[in-house]
């Protein structure tokens, strides 16, 4: 089992990186958050990895943060959620916000992921709520959802709005979040 990889990035695509270590290039599927933090090829990187083995597949999944790997591993242990689905779930927002959504039982937040229906979202919440812990913060989560909807009503796509919200401070009220997100979005 490969627990981590440290090496130089020799290829960066939309879904994976190839990291060369001691002359061997490893294809590592990465989350959108990890991919956005990688700047260029030739950069040295250390990734926490999960080795996924099936009878016909041997895949590596890599993450910059250990807490992202831990949530990924929790998600793939939910029946019906595979590694690609777990990466899609991790790509919707920050780890903290996902944990709050699961902890507060907010299925509507999880169903925004393509391929995740209400039953699957409920299954994720039932199986992971105790592991993650029912966190307080429903107001914060609701504020983020309201901010997301406001940005969408202003004509931004859901993915653009989510990317902007990842960069906005979580401690602020909805109006401030919208202003900060609009500044980020207009800077594109």
TrEMBL record:
InterPro entries in alphabetical order: DNA_helicase_Holl-junc_RuvA_I (IPR013849), Hlx-hairpin-Hlx_DNA-bd_motif (IPR003583), NA-bd_OB-fold (IPR012340), RuvA (IPR000085), RuvA_2-like (IPR010994), RuvA_C (IPR011114), RuvA_C_sf (IPR036267)
GO cellular component, one term: cytoplasm
Major location category of this protein: cytoplasm
Biological processes per GO annotation: DNA recombination; DNA repair
A Pfam short name: RuvA_C
Compartmental location: Cytoplasm
Record domain Helix-hairpin-helix DNA-binding motif class: where: 73-92, 108-127
The UniProt record lists the keyword Nucleotide-binding: yes
Region feature Domain III, mapped onto this chain: 146-188
Key words of the record: ATP-binding, Cytoplasm, DNA damage, DNA recombination, DNA repair, DNA-binding, Helicase, Hydrolase, Nucleotide-binding
Region of interest (Domain I), residue spans: 1-64
GO molecular function: ATP binding; four-way junction DNA binding; four-way junction helicase activity
Subunit structure: Homotetramer. Forms an RuvA(8)-RuvB(12)-Holliday junction (HJ) complex. HJ DNA is sandwiched between 2 RuvA tetramers; dsDNA enters through RuvA and exits via RuvB. An RuvB hexamer assembles on each DNA strand where it exits the tetramer. Each RuvB hexamer is contacted by two RuvA subunits (via domain III) on 2 adjacent RuvB subunits; this complex drives branch migration. In the full resolvosome a probable DNA-RuvA(4)-RuvB(12)-RuvC(2) complex forms which resolves the HJ.
Family: Belongs to the RuvA family.
Free-text note on domains in this protein's UniProt record: Has three domains with a flexible linker between the domains II and III and assumes an 'L' shape. Domain III is highly mobile and contacts RuvB.
HAMAP family assigned to the protein according to its UniProt record, in alphabetical order: DNA_HJ_migration_RuvA
Role: The RuvA-RuvB-RuvC complex processes Holliday junction (HJ) DNA during genetic recombination and DNA repair, while the RuvA-RuvB complex plays an important role in the rescue of blocked DNA replication forks via replication fork reversal (RFR). RuvA specifically binds to HJ cruciform DNA, conferring on it an open structure. The RuvB hexamer acts as an ATP-dependent pump, pulling dsDNA into and through the RuvAB complex. HJ branch migration allows RuvC to scan DNA until it finds its consensus sequence, where it cleaves and resolves the cruciform DNA.
The protein's name: Holliday junction branch migration complex subunit RuvA
Native species: Candidatus Nomurabacteria bacterium GW2011_GWF2_43_24
């Amino acid at each position: 089992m490969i627990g981590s990889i440290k090496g130089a990035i020799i290829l960066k695509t939309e879904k994976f990186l190839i990291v060369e270590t001691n002359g061997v290039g490893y294809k590592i599927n990465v989350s959108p958050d990890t991919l956005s933090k990688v700047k260029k090829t030739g950069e040295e990187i250390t990734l926490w990895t999960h080795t996924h083995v099936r009878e016909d597949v041997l895949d590596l999944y890599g993450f910059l943060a250990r807490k992202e790997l831990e949530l990924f591993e929790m998600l793939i242990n939910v029946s019906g959620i595979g590694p690609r689905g777990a990466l899609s779930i991790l790509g919707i927002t920050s780890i903290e916000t996902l944990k709050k959504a699961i902890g507060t039982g907010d299925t509507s937040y999880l169903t925004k992921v393509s391929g995740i229906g209400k039953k699957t979202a409920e299954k994720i919440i039932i199986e992971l709520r105790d592991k993650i812990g029912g966190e307080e913060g429903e107001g914060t989560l609701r504020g983020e959802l309201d901010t997301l909807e406001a940005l969408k009503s202003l004509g931004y796509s859901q993915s653009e709005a989510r990317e902007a919200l990842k960069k906005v401070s979580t401690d602020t009220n909805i109006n401030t979040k919208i202003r900060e997100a609009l500044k980020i979005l207009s800077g594109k």
